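During the first year of the project, the team set up a workflow for recording each protein of interest as an amino acid sequence followed immediately by a discrete structure-token representation. This format lets reviewers and collaborators read both layers of information side by side without switching files. As required by the reporting guidelines, we include two representative entries from the current panel. The first entry is reproduced here exactly as it appears in our internal archive.
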Amino acid sequence: MDNRKKTEKSEIFKPENVKRTVKDYALVTFGILLVAIGVHFFKFPNNFAIGGVTGLAMILSKAFGGAISSATIVLVMNVILLIIAYLILGKDFGNKTLYGSLLFSLVLSLLERIVPMQAPITDQPLLELAFAVIFPAFGQAILFNIGASSGGTDIVAMLLKKFTHWDIGRSLFISDCILTLAGFAVFSVETVLLSILGLLIKSTLVDSVIENLNLNKYFTIITEHPEEICDYILNHIKRSATVFDGKGAFTNEDKKIIITVMNRAQAVQLRQYIKQVDPGAFILITNTSEIIGKGFRA
């Protein structure tokens, strides 16, 4: 048992693991700041109950006549949902979400004191709705992509995703929908309808952003110079590749087929190199965001 604990500790402090942890928590911080900006400056002043704990907090705060601040309600509800996250979704998700939810509540509280919002920034509800959706959607997409969340119903969405295998956008929509509809009891019909519109846009946007964050290029290369190309992929781009034997149907000549996957910046480099060493190579490049294996998703 002691040897296993020592092994686990040594794994944690490996340079590559420390670097990944620092990067993950930096991304959590950035994602939380985006969510907090959208919520404080655009969501709260307009009473957009676009689901989530923040949406429910607005409804409850309004129902209590403002006696309890939205930020306080967010903090209390996050604590309850965090316990569930640790028990079901695991320590790694729980730790990142704990950090994210505490930071989220702290940032909201600071913004309420430093930049109190008594009214919307503009008199254009649709413009305000756009920013109330865009900022949190980008922030949540970053968080979901690294296995974290800002707490609240994001945790419920992750639970739905885990047990139903729905994509995160659909899970987020379902977990937030009931809370959004509850706004009819407190806010005007116009506000609730705008909130429902925002929820629909947000659930779609989150999936789209996650897909783009994970976008890679899948290459199928038919060439007569496989050695040079594979050497460039392995030693310069630091990726791997698989090589097959092939034969041209028209020319009946032997060819080599190389398949490889890399990010967009690396794809540009490889395409330019192939153009130099084998101008006659036939290249198929496909966008892909679901890659599972070493060097990509576990």
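The second entry, processed by the same pipeline in the following quarter, appears below.
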Amino acid sequence: MNMKRMLLTLVLIFSTLGVFAADITPITEAFKKGNATSIQAQMDQEVDVALPGSSKKANAAEAVTMLNTFFGANKPSGFNLLHHADKKENGFFVAKLPTANGEFRINLTYRADGDKAIIQSIRIE
């Protein structure tokens, strides 16, 4: 009987862990569509942005402008999530972004605010 209770407890613990996961769908959709404006509300007050040829700590509006400039020069033709790790308070993902000018690798970190992912850093190489 104790073994069954322990197993049930473990199942309940692991199933509730997923409830705290931040939703990255709006971010991945923005990259897929090449539209950073749609995720401006998910940018932290300061975001570390590293793009080919430029790198800076930017506020949300500057980060969106930098990304939209990148998307203007490199129109996405898809999005492939390679790795995603999510903890209660933060997470990251690694993805490939095929564009008209070649494929780029995206590394993005975020903090969780409830079920919302707040972007802290974006690196595109």
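For the second entry, the following points were noted during internal review. The CA atoms of residues 48 and 57 lie 4 Å apart. The mean pLDDT is 89. Both points are flagged for discussion at the upcoming steering committee meeting.
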